[in-house]
Amino acid sequence: MVTIEIRKNSLFEEGEFSYDLKTLSGNFFPNKKCKIELRKDWEKRTDYPIRITINKSIVMDTALDPYDKEKVKREVYNSFSEYTHSVLPWGILTGIRPAKIAYSLLDELGSRQEAFEVLMDDYLLYQQKAELALDVAANEHLLTDGLNLKDGYSVYIGIPFCPSICEYCSFSSYPIERYQDSVGDYLDALEKELLFIDRFIHSHRVKRELHSVYVGGGTPTSLSPSDLKRLMGMIRENVPIDGDTEFTVEAGRPDSITKEKLEILKESGVKRLSINPQSMLPETLKRLGRTHTAAQVREAFRLARECGIENINMDLIVGLPEEDEVDFYNTLNQVYDLGPDSITVHTLVIKRASRLRREQMETGGDIRPEDTLIPVLQKGSYDYLKEHGYEPYYMYRQKNALGSSRNTNQENVAYARLGKECLYNVLMMEDLEDILAFGSGGASKKMFRGSGRIKRVENVKSVEDYIKRIDEMIARKQEVFDGT
Fold first, then answer.
1. Which residue of 34, 71, 295, 409 lies most exposed, with the fewest beta carbons within 10 A?
2. What's the N-to-C CA distance of the chain in angstroms?
3. Tens digit of pLDDT for each residue in 4-54?
4. Can you tell me the distance from the alpha carbon of 211 to that of 428, in angstroms, rounded to the nearest whole number?
5. What is the rounded radius of gyration, in angstroms, for the C-alpha atoms of the chain?
6. Helices and strands: H and E segment counts in the chain
7. Following DSSP, what letter does each residue of 434-479 receive, concatenated?
8. What proportion of the chain, given as a percentage, has pLDDT over 70?
9. Are the beta carbons of 150 and 432 closer than 8 angstroms?
């Protein structure tokens, strides 16, 4: 047990700081529970605001002002680091958006070098992580410069069906074969929910500008051609897409892609597609429960280009079970040879809801051999892709992960050729404008300008509940978004 005692009325009693300290504790001590509690004798003593004990042994007393947030986090970090003889690549950063810090520093200081020094000295980042955060922040700025973010918004549409469920998946996805009888009812509910967009647009005094539309899931292309055509028609009817709107569809599973479906997407104005192999090794694909082959990946990519899709992303994962460094670079080379416009490198984090986690618990394992390769492959993919003309423009950290600190302190990074980035991902991840999310599991976000406050409006995840409670989902949006 890691216990952090605090003086009453300090900022650590609850909220963000308590979360930050618990996250730091979890990264250094993944198998120990962290408890934050009030000092029992706080009224009688004033010698320290904060005390840390591990297994009832005192490891740190700090005289730092408990309201000096960053200094206290550095002191706690250094205490944990000394105790465990380890460091964390992302230092004291515990949120999932490190590029937001880098973006603010670049804006405030106006110098990359000064921002770099702050990330290294104040936030205790590894050099490579500081460089990565600054690269992403600079490219985000270039991508969003000139956009009317104050009046802008983006749309997410979730299709929760997949050909099969991957072993590592923790999303709310459902096998299309088992839910085939529900697809029509799901699209009925979705069509009703999409009507809210017109109300959203006309309830504001100023014109709202639609910047991007992202259809994700799940795997939207797991729908039949007729259902996919209906979905695209619903979107064109209800979402005011024009020639400047980025329009992305997640066609992540190559075994769900056909020429007919690609033609439907192209005719509907889709500009960007994701085709995600994750790995090109047959043994790995089988192990993960992905029912496609490397040959199908190549064929799906060829068909997409043939149909005129000029912006294609491909996802890869580092740290897959039983893959070594040679295996990953085998995949990376094969994918690069296809010529995608962007490549997103994910880190495998085994989360509670995945089948891989259940298998891990059954075998009694926690720290996997592949975890030691993750930092090496992240750095290697950064060097490889930069050398081959791709720049990192989007990144988010993992959260709610289980396992060693090596596994829980990692990130996903998207690299793209100039002009081929995904605007939606940046706008959504960095909380730059309102997001209207439709479909089961969708999470809308309302930005309150000036205060920095964000209000999330979440749809239910269950397909059955979404269909039954669609009026409630619409009412939730109306309560938050109408007339604001």
1. 295
2. 46
3. 777 665 555 556 777 888 888 888 988 788 887 776 665 565 556 677 888
4. 11
5. 23
6. 18, 17
7. EEEEESTT-EEEEEETTTTEEEEEE--S-HHHHHHTHHHHHHHHHH
8. 86
9. no
Is the pLDDT confidence value at 95 over 60? yes
Instruction: Note the pTM of the prediction, 2 decimals.
Output: 0.90
Residues 161 and 390: their CA atoms lie apart, in Å, by: 31
The residue-averaged pLDDT of 267-296 equals 93
Name the burial class of residue 70, with classes exposed (0-12), middle (13-18) and buried (19+) by CB atoms within 10 angstroms of its CB: exposed
DSSP secondary structure letter of residue 221: G
Cα angle vertex 17, ends 171, 107, to 5°? 85
H or E stretch at 60? strand 57-62
Structure tokens at 324: 């070594």
Looking at beta carbons, which pairs linking 302-305 to residues 24 or more positions away fall under 8 Å? Answer: 303/257, 303/258, 303/259, 303/262, 304/251, 304/257, 304/262, 304/273, 304/275
CA dist 316 and 89 (Å) reads 21
User: What mean pLDDT is predicted for residues 188-193?
Assistant: 98
How many CB atoms are located within 10 Å of the residue 85 CB? 6
Instruction: Enter the tokens of residue 108.
Output: 């405030």
For residue 480, what are the contacts with CB-CB under 8 A and spacing of at least 6? 444, 446, 455, 457
**CA–CA separation, 370 and 348 (whole Å):** 10
Q: What is the pLDDT of residues 242-279, one digit of tens each?
A: 999 999 999 989 999 999 999 999 999 999 999 999 99
Pinpoint the alpha helices (H) of 268-324: 282-288, 294-306
**What residue has token string 């479906």?**
261
- On average, the pLDDT of the chain sits at 88
CA distances to 156, 205, 322, 482 from 196, rounded to whole Å, are 13, 17, 47, 10
> At residue 216, what is the residue type?
G
Residue closest to 333 by CA, chosen among 380, 375, 296 = 380
Query: Apex CA 245: angle with CA 244 and CA 250, to 5°?
Result: 140
Is residue 128 exposed (0-12), middle (13-18) or buried (19+ Cβ within 10 Å)? Answer: middle
Q: Which residue has the tokens 């100039």?
A: 418
Helices (H), 239-366: 259-267, 282-288, 294-306, 325-338, 355-363
Alpha-carbon dihedral angle through residues 165, 171, 176, 178, given to the nearest 10 degrees: 80
pLDDT tops 70 at residue 76: yes
Q: Is the pLDDT of residue 364 over 90?
A: no
Residue 406 has pLDDT above 50, yes or no: no
Residues 6+ apart with CB under 8 A from 326: none
Mean pLDDT score, 139-148: 95
